[in-house]
Amino acid sequence: MVALSATCADVHLRIDPSILYFGTPVVLVTTRNRDGSTNIGPMSSAWALGDTVVLGWSTDSQTAVNLERERECVVNLPSADLHQAVEALAPLTGRDPVPADKTAKFRYEPDKFAAAGFTSQPSDRVAVPRIAQCQLQLEAKVSAIHVPVDPEGGFWIVETHVERVHAHPDIVKAGTDHIDPARWNPLLYVFRHYFGTGDELGRSFRAED
């Protein structure tokens, strides 16, 4: 084990980063719009505990509106090789008209499957489809939506319960129900840059450096 200097704390810099995406998986959440079409919401504010997946959403997003109304979704996890398709979705929104605070960087797109080159795949337990190109897909139903005490907070915390998990055979340990971490290379979002489990793959259009 490498010995740490007693003064190592002295070398840290006090910084004020604009965002705290310190390294989380990219998630593509499919939800159903009011007209029955499908929205794809890319995000990186998701974490799992047992059969619960918690999602953080901006209140002005189409995904948040759909989750509140439909109470179900699919949490699709793209692999690192899909980073360009994910970035194609990044500047798009399913809200029409586009919210005022997004007009400078986002545009309305009703068909996000076509925009990203993705294929729709039917689900088993929910009405909304899965994304066929994503090797790991979690069908889920909303169990709770937590609204911040501060109405200006702008975010909802959405708890979902996973009803069914789909995994491509390439990432499953043969004869088991376990994901093989040596073969599963999730796309990670690190301070608005895309990584797999190796070298950087690209950068988000919102990256500031």
Overview of the molecule:
By secondary structure, the protein is mainly beta. The chain has one domain (19-199): Roll (Pnp Oxidase, Chain A), CATH 2.30.110.10. Helices cover 10% and strands 35% of the residues. The mean pLDDT is 91.
Q: Secondary-structure map with pairings?
A:
Blueprint: E1 24-25, E2 27-32, E3 38-43, E4 46-49, E5 52-58, H1 62-70, E6 72-77, H2 83-89, E7 92-93, E8 107-108, H3 112-116, E9 120-121, E10 130-131, E11 136-146, E12 155-167, E13 188-190, E14 193-195, E15 200-203
Parallel strand pairs: 7-8
Antiparallel strand pairs: 1-13, 2-3, 2-6, 4-5, 5-12, 6-11, 9-10, 11-12, 13-14, 14-15
Q: How would you summarize this macromolecular structure in one to three sentences?
A:
It comes from Fodinicola feengrottensis. The chain has 3 helices and 15 strands.
* Assembly category: single chain
Question: How many structural domains are formed by the residues?
Answer: 1
Q: Bin the helical content.
A: 10-25%
Enumerate the strands of the largest sheet in spatial order, edge to edge or round the barrel: 3-2-6-11-12-5-4
Structural class: mainly beta
Number of helices: 3
Shape: globular
Reading off the top of the CATH hierarchy, the class is best stated as: Mainly Beta
The number of E-state strands comes to 15
Strand fraction band? 25-35%
- Rg calc: 18 Å
Looking at the overall shape, the CATH architecture is Roll
Task: Give the CATH H-level superfamily.
Answer: Electron Transport, Fmn-binding Protein, Chain A
